[in-house]
Amino acid sequence: MALDIRVPTLGESVTEATIGKWNKQPGDAVKADEPLVELETDKVSIEVPAPADGVLEAIIAQEGETVGVDALLAQLNENGAAAAAVVDEKAATKTTEKETGTSAMASAELIDIIAPSAGESVTEAEIGAWHVSVGEAFAVDDPLVELETDKAAMDVPAAAAGTLAEILAPTGTVIAPGDVIGRISVGEGATPSAPAPTATPAPAAKTNGATTSMDPSPAAAKMLAEKGISADSVAGSGKRGQVLKGDVLEALDKTTAAKAEAPVQAPRPASSDDDAVREERVRMTRLRQTIAKRLKGAQETAAMLTTFNEVDMGPVMDLRKSYKDLFEKKHGVKLGFMGFFTKAVCHALKEIPAVNAEIDGTDIIYKNYAHIGVAVGTDKGLVVPVVRDADQMTIAEVEQEIGRLGRAARDGDLTMADMQGGTFTISNGGVYGSLMSTPILNSPQSGILGMHKIQERPVAVNGEVAIRPMMYLALSYDHRIVDGKEAVTFLVRIKESLEDPQRLVLDL
């Protein structure tokens, strides 16, 4: 029979605790009243004993997790006399499973988690975040871990329902397609492997000037490291002078109060130690690293300039207002601005092919097609999916494809094919409120168009001042291949198409 081991009542005003240290691992035999796990509150550490003889079947709450009162900590397999026999047998024989720190029920099966292929030209990826921890249960197709490539991030789903038995590739590990990055345990009675210890012992704490051999509790050690405080400067109130989380919080409160009561003094020179306490170091994702390298490379390689113009968005806005309901009903997609801009760009590229070309050594490659990249901001960084053969599409088809690519980008479902082969890029900083910017080239392309916020401004129309919805346009281009005259003409053609949308229909 399986017994639930739960968080006991911690005190009248204490509602949560942190898992300190598990004294037993799944598969270990235990006896009644034997301490299983240490819980840490702000003021004290307590041990949770085994309610009966048996075998620790599964650990639900891992070390470092914060749990509330009555939360499930683990499960104990109790079988009366049989359980006692198991205890004696394990104590006498010290089986191989005990020595290796892993155990599994006979009916459990281990399945490898294999890194999938991320595309034809992708030879490696980096482990991002594991969505589940060792011992945590999940359903089939639940995301287990995120892989980061130079182009995008992708989740690896669970091939079967079970629990995560082992993590072989922790966050930050560079792996190749086909590598085994972890194992899941499936089947009745499946139990996880014990995770390898990762904590580094903290320095010994002092209590009233006396050094003790008790290390700070795990929660306290973590907070000491985060705040940049030495354990020697904090008095411990735990057993044998152990520094607890509450001791660190109390020390921080005293420091804050002392600063508040201190008389105002003349500014002192800035200290790098003070700054370090307020800093946070976060690992740069592989995608962000690639973005940084390519954007810096574009600056170093191209002779980049930017030219500006402004466009009256009134005609396009009037057209959208008149036909948006009919358009959405017929095509199943909303009529936005990107369809108009994409078609205007395609018309201008036909007239000024240098903006659609790229340099390869001492050659210029002119593209007789228009694959338009649309920059999309995601929580993991900027990605540029590509609308292929946009020059052959209708505005409705462009809007449908942009909608599909935008959803895929936000959901992390973009493929390598979705982001390759672009010949020109459109970036819309206006959605974030940008009034003017100088977009950076998406190498090896020779041009990028920056859209901005539509803002009503007074302008001269037929000799009179009128309030019109205006947008600034910016074209950044590679001056090695595009002359100034061509760049200005290109931007003027876009302006003309947007201010007179009939040109797009008549191909003028």
How would you sum up this structure, described in words?
By secondary structure, this protein is α+β, with helices and mostly antiparallel strands. The protein folds into three domains: 99 residues, RNA polymerase II/Efflux pump adaptor protein, barrel-sandwich hybrid domain (OB fold (Dihydrolipoamide Acetyltransferase, E2P), Beta Barrel); 78 residues, RNA polymerase II/Efflux pump adaptor protein, barrel-sandwich hybrid domain (OB fold (Dihydrolipoamide Acetyltransferase, E2P), Beta Barrel); 220 residues, Chloramphenicol Acetyltransferase (2-Layer Sandwich). Helices cover 27% and strands 28% of the residues. It is built from eleven helices and 29 strands. Strands 19, 22, 25, 26, 27, 28 and 29 form a seven-stranded mixed beta sheet that branches. A four-stranded antiparallel beta sheet has the order 1-8-6-3. α8 packs across α10. The radius of gyration is 31 Å and the shape is elongated. The N and C termini lie far apart (80 Å). About 8% of the residues have low confidence.
- Write down the CATH class of the largest domain: Alpha Beta
Average pLDDT over all residues: 80
Question: What is the third-level CATH name, the topology of the largest domain?
Answer: Chloramphenicol Acetyltransferase
**CATH homologous superfamily identity of the largest domain:** Chloramphenicol acetyltransferase-like domain
